[in-house]
Amino acid sequence: MENSNRVPFDWFVDPLKLGVAGAYTDSEDNPLAWQADAVCAQTDPEAFFPEKGGSTRDAKRICSGCDVRQQCLDYALANDERFGIWGGLSERERRKLKKRA
């Protein structure tokens, strides 16, 4: 006989799987929690990694409205990301920013 007071095994759904913005932004346990709120996570990733000489306009437009743009840029600078648009800046723009610092 089944106990009707038992909690179903699937009672918890990870908010990240549901795409809930703000789900883990303040999590100290996960330094990449900001990625859950990144607008780019809900768009085509190819826009952020254009071919050499390709336009970065679409990616930068998306970044301009992102709440975690600064965290993204900080991550890219700290981890020496050499490809793609991070925090609204291209590889070249990030290199220039690092040189000025």
TrEMBL record:
Cofactor(s) the record lists: [4Fe-4S] cluster
Keyword Cell membrane in annotation: no
Matches recorded under Pfam families: Whib (PF02467)
One of the protein's GO biological processes: cell redox homeostasis
The UniProt record lists the keyword Protein transport: no
Single annotated GO MF: metal ion binding
Domain 4Fe-4S Wbl-type: 39-96
Keywords tagged on the record: 4Fe-4S, Disulfide bond, DNA-binding, Iron, Iron-sulfur, Metal-binding, Transcription, Transcription regulation
HAMAP family: WhiB
Family that this chain belongs to: Belongs to the WhiB family.
Protein name: Unannotated protein
Organism annotation: freshwater metagenome
